[in-house]
Design brief:
Elements: H1 19-41, H2 44-54, H3 60-76
Length: about 80
């Protein structure tokens, strides 16, 4: 094969080799969004906000108080339909 053969040309000749970097950044961004969504779904973020608001450290007692407060809030919330 000659050096000018198009079959030997780099796949991302115009991108300067940044294609894999951009793809990796997109995957990392998608994984962060997924992680944050799961933290919201499973109340990890709510518990972290509770700890910050009450200025307490994570413990069995603080988690128990968090769950009580959460259950009280859910009971007061009006239900639709």
């Amino acid at each position: 094969m000659r050096s000018g053969d198009p079959r030997r040309a780099p796949r991302h000749a115009g991108a300067g080799g940044t294609g894999p970097v951009i793809a990796r950044d997109r995957v990392i961004g998608a994984l962060r969004i997924l992680r944050d969504a799961l933290r919201e779904i499973f109340d990890e973020n709510a518990y972290a906000r509770f700890l910050q608001t009450t200025q307490r450290a994570a413990s069995v007692e603080s988690y128990r108080d968090f769950m009580r407060e959460r259950e009280t809030g859910m009971a007061k919330r009006p239900r639709c339909c």
